[in-house]
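Record Protein-arginine rhamnosyltransferase, 377 aa.
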Amino acid sequence: MKVDWDIFCTVVDNYGDIGVTWRLARQLVAEHPCAVRLWVDDLRAFERLCPELDISASQQWQQGVDVRHWPADWQATDAADVVVAAFACQLPHAYMEAMAARERTPLWLNLDYLSAEDWIVGCHGLPSVKFQHVQKYFFFPGFQPGTGGLLRERELLVRREQFQANPVAQREFLQGLGVERAPEARLISLFAYENAGLADWLEVMANATQATHLLVPEGRVLGDVARWLGQPELAVGDVQQRGALTVQVLPFVRQDQYDLLLWCCDFNAVRGEDSFVRAQWAARPMLWHIYQQEEEAHLDKLEAFLTLYTNAMSPAARAALEGLWRAWNSGEGMAAAWVGAQEHWPELQNHARAWSLEQSLRADLAAALVQFYLNWI
Ligand code: TRH
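=>
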């Protein structure tokens, strides 16, 4: 018999909240005996990841997931066996009443943001608040044993290996996006927030001996790219060349296609949470633009991840990678940091593969959630 899950998602901003919950919901129905309702308060952000979504529908089925628009005026609804409040979102009061009224008390989880900080290990799985007799638990994704792990679909790495070993499939995928890759050019994808360090980086790539083809899905960083190019604005399909650098604006692709883009590229600049994890599964060198938080709390998270990620690297490559990531996240010194990273390119490539493999040896987040439920009952 299937276990009923309700996943609640409020879209705070951007695509990470819906990106994570949509991915989790799909994986639970595809790989586990779960029936999932996904409650989302903003279907427009969701539509970017899943273009067949009907943003006017209050209920619809997408890839086996029962997608519900989470309305401001909540209608009475029975609670599920497992209730996931993503990123500490506040459940409707009437729904919490429904949880408490159930004959069999549901498992209530707060799925938290991803962090590499050490304290995550100590807090994962601990009880949080109660509503009447219903206990809520913290569930922390993470990179270390003792955390909830990372989202990773069952066949993901096999599919990645096949795709990365298949130049024809890669060429066809890129051609579908209007990208003709010159064999000598290094392919880089760029997904980032506005970044004052971008001009420096583009400049150094334009002046390099090695050719670079930079693919920029439309989004927040495009204004900085346009400014450096001296263009009033950029649109999907635009291609501009400056020296050794070709810049091409891509459409924002559907979520499953974004993986293919990352798998094609030699280097991926990513941001937030979900694209950050997907770039790790791409097993290629990468650059993370972390989501900025109040009181610079994000800088601790950046350092915590760097400590873990660079642990097995040579001191010189480690310093180069840390320098690059810190430059990107402070918006300063990208030119020198990029040149420095080039000297360690083979090690960065090998390390990206080793890291992806190491992380893949742990239970994935969806499996860990299901196991948590089984242990709890
Ligand atoms: O969009 P993000 O910056 O999201 C978030 C949110 O801001 C959130 O509030 C914050 O807390 C969190 O970051 C840390 O970055 P993220 O998490 O990488 O989500 C982007 C999603 O968009 C991800 O699922 C991949 C997807 N995507 C596509 O589907 N197609 C594309 O072309 C691109 C570039 C991304």
